[in-house]
Specification:
This protein is an alpha+beta fold and 149 residues long. The chain is 21% helix and 33% strand. The chain is built from three helices and five strands; from the N terminus they run βαααββββ. A five-stranded antiparallel β-sheet has the order 1-3-4-5-2, with helices on one face. The radius of gyration is 17 Å and the shape is elongated.
Length: 149
């Protein structure tokens, strides 16, 4: 059933969205697609040399997961704005030990409708969102604006 402006209320909760565990393969694929080959995302030696435990996921990859959460609820043609602030780093699971994923590489995005209004002849909603790993660490916070029929 398609969402409509009159069917949404301030305080309504966006359906939670949980990603698959992020692996190093995801990082390699994302680097190739984005052109972001910063060694923080693929070079274990470099990451450790700058004080990290291991490589980290691209922030924009986490933002992409948040985008998937939004468009799994609201058709992307209605999206008018999407903005985030990055809060903490995300490590991929260790591919040598899937039994010890530590859940930190699984991202869950939640959100809540905080405003309804009219702008430019469209009825719009504003929804705040947060992405967290399974341990509760906040990875990003942000919001999106969508025009709904």
């Amino acid at each position: 059933m398609a969402l409509v402006f009159d069917g949404i209320q301030i305080g309504d909760i966006m359906p939670p969205y949980t990603s698959a565990p992020i692996t190093r393969t995801h990082l390699v694929r994302y680097a190739g697609a984005s052109g972001d080959f910063n060694p923080l995302h693929h070079d274990e030696t470099f990451a450790k040399a700058v004080g990290l435990e291991t490589v980290i996921t691209h922030g924009m990859f986490i933002m992409g997961i948040a985008g998937q959460a939004i468009t799994s609820w609201i058709d992307n043609r209605w999206l008018r704005k999407f903005s985030v602030h990055f809060l903490s780093m995300t490590q991929p699971v260790d591919l040598n030990d899937y039994s010890n994923t530590k859940d930190r590489a699984t991202i869950t995005v939640t959100g809540k409708v905080v405003d309804k209004y009219e702008e430019n002849g469209e009825t719009r909603i504003r929804c705040e969102l947060t992405a967290r790993d399974a341990l509760g660490s906040r990875k990003l916070k942000g919001y999106f604006v969508a025009a709904l029929p």
